[in-house]
Each structure stands twice: as structure tokens, then as C-alpha cells.
Amino acid sequence: MGFKLLTFKVKSLAANEERDIFLKLEKEERAVIHGVVKFPDGRPVENAVVKLFHQPTKDPCKLIPVTFAFTDKCGQFMFGVPSCHEFVIKVFFFEKEHKPTHDDCDCCDY
Fold it and tell me: Is the pLDDT of residue 89 over 90?
């Protein structure tokens, strides 16, 4: 069982002021999908795009985009998702082989 993310804005406090705040979390039926993206040699992939799709039917061409995340420096990603749904995850990573120079493109400012 999970709980809804709760946000509470605290207005500025005066010097020497103390404020007690009591927050009550509401139940939420949600699940979590998390994982790690790695290169074939085992190194984590930082800044890969991990896209989450809802799969309402068995037809792989009828996927519905839900959300996306970027992997962190450890290659990790996480999604909070509704329970009892089927999902598909797709990952994309692109790394330039070299930085462009003025010789590569005379129309761009780098």
C-alpha cells in the first residue's frame, strides 16, 4: 500500500518563530516500477530516456504513452504507476561520437 504525495507550503517564519505542522497521509493504491539501464559491458547508462507505455490490448502498435524518466548517474529510474495495469517500457540512449566543430557545420553556433 502506498500513500499520496502530499505537498504543504510553509510560509516564511519570523525570527525565533516555531511552527508545528501535522500532516495526514491519504492511502493510495499505487505500485512502483523501477530498474537499472546498463551498457553491455555492465556500466550504468546515465541520461537514458526510459518511456512508459500502457498496453490496453495485445496489439504492440496500440501503446499509450504514460510518462518518461531520465536515468540517474547509476542508471536507475522509477515510475509510480496505477496497480492492475500492463505496461511496456522502451529505452533510448544516444551518445555523440564527437563534439561538433565549426568545420562540421558552418550554419550553427556552438
Answer: yes
Gap between the Cα atoms of 42 and 25, Å rounded: 39
Residue 75, Ramachandran bin (φ over 0: left; ψ between -120 and 50: alpha; else beta)? left
User: Cell digits for 73?
Assistant: 548517474
Report the distance separating Cα 87 and Cα 57, nearest Å: 10
State the pTM of this model. Answer: 0.63
> Residue 25 and residue 92: Cα distance in Å, rounded?
36
- Asked if pLDDT for residue 104 goes beyond 60, the answer is no
Q: Are 83 and 29 in contact (CB under 8 A)?
A: yes
Enumerate residues 6+ apart whose C-beta is below 8 A from 37. Answer: 44, 45, 48, 50, 71, 75, 77, 91, 93
